[in-house]
Write a structure and sequence with these properties.
The protein is mainly α. Helix 1 runs antiparallel to helix 2, helix 2 runs antiparallel to helix 3 and helix 3 runs antiparallel to helix 4. The longest helix is centred in the N-terminal third of the chain and has 35 residues. It starts with 9 loop residues before the first helix and ends with a helix.
Length: about 140
Amino acid sequence: MTTTHPTRSAGSARQAWAGGLTVFAAVMLGITGLVGVFRGIMAIAEDDVFLTTPNYVFEFDLTSWGWIHLILGIVALVVSFGLYTAATWARVTGVGIAGLVIIANFLSLPYYPAWSILMIAMSAVVIWALCTVRRDDTVPR
């Protein structure tokens, strides 16, 4: 006795792949945002975790960096919730916010080097995941 298994069309496989990448990007952007919020709170409270680097070109007050990371983290969290709906605005904004997170972490690299490098890598993965998915792959046919 033989059984037949339904075959998946190429379109449904692409949709599954696109949906998975979008959810992956949403989770990663949410984690990035949450960590950014925590880092911002630590910097605003002027925690002893941060290093002081004399004569740094992009030197801001630690509290200023805290507010920058806090605001970017909150926006990243909001956008990550929008990505769960596969909204186009959330994908575009997600790429922009991840790019700003990369820039902010690069500029604040001397204050918390290991964490900044990790955040840059996570944001790069978010940008890759959001740019890999095409709009027509997320829409059912």
